[in-house]
Q: What sequence folds into this?
């Protein structure tokens, strides 16, 4: 029994590494953050990204269609008419008509409408591209959040596992002391209660850790039978990348606001362009036959070959009053977009400054809490060793354990808060 007590005391005083060094390490091979982002992009596992890619393809097709408007429009036209002579005055009716021709139409002057349409299609492509970037950024933020939560869950599991191992060792000591006649049944019962509570904490942490990983795997297209594990290697390095400053390039939100402003200006310009005339060149070539009745008169009639060239001018002068109203609405839309752009830029600056200040504060708090945890851990082991030797009461040991648990959970919470703040700041720079 004395050997067991001595061994436990040595183990408590020189116990293994802290949970902050062991809890974050993944067990076995797993998927890194880069692996999952690549899978979501290339494998089509994320349906939102698939839909965004399809929308971008459609926008590119509309852009090609808009650019084709500068080329002439070719069409084949034909007409077959049959008019029975008995239904009309034979002197006034030609009896039938057959027409076939090729028609070409080319805008000579459109007042800039074509350029405006192409510009609108280009802006649509740019908007769809930003939408896809936004979805990918949010997916990356969600995955980074999952990895940060995984680190916190693993650290909490390691802390509870350390307390469980200590409780198991102390339970063995209490039982040995009772068998040796120097312990009491109440001490054994108290140790067994602590051991049961510690075992429940470990089970709860392990289940939460596994459930979190399984949920992420299912969302990314992994089956329940497919092995899946998050590999947290490199997460801290990813979160510790150079964080954005207010003077860095704009975020997706500010780019979207700037794009909305350009769209509003393009729509306003179209209202002005619609005041200009539209001049179109029309040309046709073909054959035309008349003076026949296909059923009653087999005479094919006379065949005419030829063509025509014409110019069409379309100028809607009567819509100027309507366009003036639309132009005023377009001016208002431009002012709204300008205000939203300034608001987005200001909000981004405020968010970056606030997030950077919060991260700096959390890092200072984290350093203090890390020192407090280290001290609580040493005090806990010394108190347990003293209790085994008869120099500390069970109440002191329990208070020391609670102090260690409180310091550990506070440190884990601060680390998680700091990582989540870094994720928010990374979002502002992407």
A:
């Amino acid at each position: 029994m004395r050997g067991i007590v001595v061994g436990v005391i040595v183990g408590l005083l020189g116990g293994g590494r802290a949970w902050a060094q062991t809890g974050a390490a993944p067990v076995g091979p797993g998927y890194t953050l880069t692996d999952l982002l690549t899978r979501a992009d290339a494998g089509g596992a994320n349906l939102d990204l698939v839909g965004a890619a399809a929308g971008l393809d459609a926008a590119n097709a509309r852009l090609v269609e808009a650019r084709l408007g500068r080329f002439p429009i070719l069409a084949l036209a034909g007409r077959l008419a049959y008019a029975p002579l008995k239904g009309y005055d034979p002197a006034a009716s030609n009896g039938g008509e057959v027409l076939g021709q090729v028609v070409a139409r080319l805008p000579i002057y459109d007042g800039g409408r074509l350029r405006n349409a192409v510009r609108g299609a280009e802006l649509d492509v740019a908007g769809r591209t930003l939408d896809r970037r936004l979805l990918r950024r949010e997916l990356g933020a969600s995955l980074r959040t999952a990895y940060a939560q995984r680190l916190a869950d693993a650290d909490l599991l390691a802390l509870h596992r350390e307390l469980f191992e200590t409780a198991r060792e102390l339970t063995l000591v209490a039982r040995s002391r009772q068998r040796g006649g120097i312990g009491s049944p109440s001490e054994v019962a108290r140790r067994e209660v602590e051991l049961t509570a510690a075992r429940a904490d470990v089970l709860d942490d392990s289940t939460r850790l596994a459930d979190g990983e399984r949920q992420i795997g299912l969302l990314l297209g992994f089956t329940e039978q497919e092995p899946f594990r998050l590999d947290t290697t490199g997460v801290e390095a990813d979160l510790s990348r150079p964080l954005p400053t207010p003077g860095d390039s704009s975020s997706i939100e500010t780019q979207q606001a700037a794009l909305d402003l350009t769209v509003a200006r393009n729509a306003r310009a179209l209202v002005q362009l619609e005041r200009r005339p539209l001049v179109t060149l029309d040309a046709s070539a073909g054959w035309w036959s008349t003076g026949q009745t296909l059923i009653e008169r087999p005479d094919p009639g006379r065949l005419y070959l030829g063509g025509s060239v014409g110019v069409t001018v379309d100028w809607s002068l009567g819509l100027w009053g309507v366009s003036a109203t639309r132009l005023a609405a377009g001016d208002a839309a431009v002012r709204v977009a300008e205000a939203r752009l300034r608001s987005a830029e200001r909000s981004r600056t405020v968010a970056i400054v606030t997030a950077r200040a919060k991260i700096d504060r959390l890092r200072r708090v984290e350093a203090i809490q890390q020192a407090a945890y280290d001290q609580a851990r040493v005090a806990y082991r010394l108190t347990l060793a003293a209790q085994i030797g008869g120099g500390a009461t069970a109440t002191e040991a329990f208070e020391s354990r609670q102090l260690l648990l409180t310091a550990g959970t506070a440190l884990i919470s601060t680390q998680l808060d700091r990582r989540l703040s870094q994720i928010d700041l990374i979002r502002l720079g992407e």
Summary: The beta strands are 73-82, 96-109, 278-290, 302-314.
